[in-house]
Amino acid sequence: MVAENELYLSLGYCAFMLLLFMIFKAFPPKKINHFYGYRTQRSMANDTVWKDANEYSLKLGVKLGIYGLFLPLFYYFIWPEQLMLATVITHTAALLLIVVGTERYLNQRYDRQGQPKNHNPKV
Predict the structure, then answer these.
(1) Among candidates 99, 71, 107, 103, which has minimal Cα distance to 86?
(2) Digit-coded pLDDT (tens) for 5-22
(3) Which of 95, 89, 96, 102 is nearest to 17 (CA)?
(4) Fewer Cβ atoms within 10 Å of its own Cβ: the N or the C terminal residue of the chain?
(5) Contacts of 83 (CB under 8 A, 6+ apart)
(6) Does this model's pTM top 0.90?
């Protein structure tokens, strides 16, 4: 495939991923479910954690989508013959970073049962 065609496909892929994140951000899941949203054991502990996890992961996703638009341009100049492959692999690795970042964020804010870590019950 010609490098320019791969550039257009790679840019289209990244733009599509950004569009998906923006749609999910505009229409976040309202209730805990097993089909739609940021679904991990910790994020599904309760409604507060669910909402917080989805907001944070989508915020990271939109940032990833914006930065991801530069990936094809970068690879076009350094590795044009494998542009699409490099873009997809790098983008997929970045998607995994969303999970790592969101779990780290939740770990800082909530315990395993979904209670806020600064939670001090009154006696």
Answers:
(1) 71
(2) 899 999 999 999 999 999
(3) 95
(4) C
(5) 3, 6, 7, 10, 72, 75, 76
(6) no
